[in-house]
Specification:
The chain is an alpha+beta fold. The protein contains nine helices and 14 strands. One of its GO terms (biological process) is maintenance of CRISPR repeat elements.
């Protein structure tokens, strides 16, 4: 078994993650009649919950052959009981013969999503008896919000499906169903995240886990937005700021990014219609340079940044 304790992260990090969504429903609200996109009724901004983003990340972990505790029920994945069997295999001994600390180490080593996001343990198993009731997740994201008011699609509002069936006389008859298809035309959406070094001690989040997250967010948006309603989303900018001063963080890096466009907000339809203004973010990072260990940046070339050369010189780019 890998000893994750020695590798647990020592530094706090913050994340700004910007995606865009075109002709899609980034996060439908199941409490509405037709699973409508979540729209702030005051500002007209599109909202995407942290739960939706974490679902993409968990699904990508599974695709990368990691075991997760909170799996997508549509996937062919381990049941929770099977996962606990995997914990025993990780330890090399049965849960009956292992010490509680060994069980804890094996559990977080096995369940990748628990190391990131934490979990509430609610299983009637011998292993669960030796685990805490709850793990506080060191990696947390806030709800994503579009940087502008969005418009809703009207072109594909109604869907009709016609199916041919055989009638009692052997002939064919047609039956149709209608559904409402709710999408936004376009939105540039920003998430803020933080990686808490104190909570990382409980889940044994490692440096390798954090480095994996730097690509996981990007790949998850590329690979997991494949259903009909979710297709059309792309990652555009990922910034992770790792601090070296204990307990310090700038706070809500995503709010220091904005969309600069000559068009009315609800008429923005693609990357050619705006610049991504990161000047306030760059200034905040420069002002706190002495407190920052490193900055990790991944950017899509399709997006124009305001002050791109300054950003690249100060932050670097991967």
């Amino acid at each position: 078994m890998t000893d994750t304790t020695d590798d647990t992260i020592q530094n706090r990090s913050e994340i700004a993650f910007v995606i865009d969504a075109k002709d899609t429903n980034p996060n439908g609200d199941p409490l509405t009649a037709d699973n409508e996109p979540r729209i702030d009724p005051v500002t007209g901004q599109c909202v995407v919950t942290d739960v939706r983003l974490k679902r993409y990340l968990r699904d990508q972990l599974v695709e990368d052959d990691h075991i997760v505790l909170i799996a997508n029920p549509n996937d062919d994945v381990l049941t929770r009981e099977e996962m606990y069997d995997a914990v025993e295999e990780e330890m090399g001994v049965s849960t009956e013969d292992a010490e509680p600390e060994e069980l804890l180490e094996a559990f977080v080593e096995t369940a990748a999503d628990v190391r990131y996001f934490g979990a509430t343990i609610s299983l009637d198993t011998e292993l669960a008896d030796d685990l805490p009731d709850q793990f506080e997740g060191p990696v947390q994201f806030n709800h994503g919000r579009s940087y502008h008011e969005v418009a809703r699609n009207t072109e594909s509002k109604q869907l009709a499906t016609v199916i041919a069936n055989e009638d009692d006389d052997g002939g064919k008859k047609e039956q149709g169903t209608f559904a409402t298809d709710n999408r936004i035309s376009y939105g540039v959406i920003g998430f803020g995240g933080r990686i808490n070094d104190n909570a990382a001690e409980d889940t044994r989040l490692t440096e390798a886990d954090v480095k994996r997250l730097d690509t996981l967010c990007w790949r998850a948006l590329k690979n997991q937005t494949v259903t009909r309603s979710k297709a059309g989303q792309q990652p555009r900018l990922y910034v992770r700021v790792e601090y070296k001063e204990d307990g310090f963080e700038i706070g809500r890096l995503n709010d220091r990014i904005d969309v600069d466009s000559d068009l009315p907000e609800d008429e923005i339809r693609g990357t050619n219609d705006f610049d991504l203004d990161v000047s306030e973010l760059v200034t905040a990072l420069a002002d706190n340079e002495a407190r920052i260990e490193t900055v990790h940046v991944t950017a899509d070339s399709a997006v124009d940044w305001s002050r791109r050369k300054i950003v690249q010189n100060r932050l670097g780019s991967r």
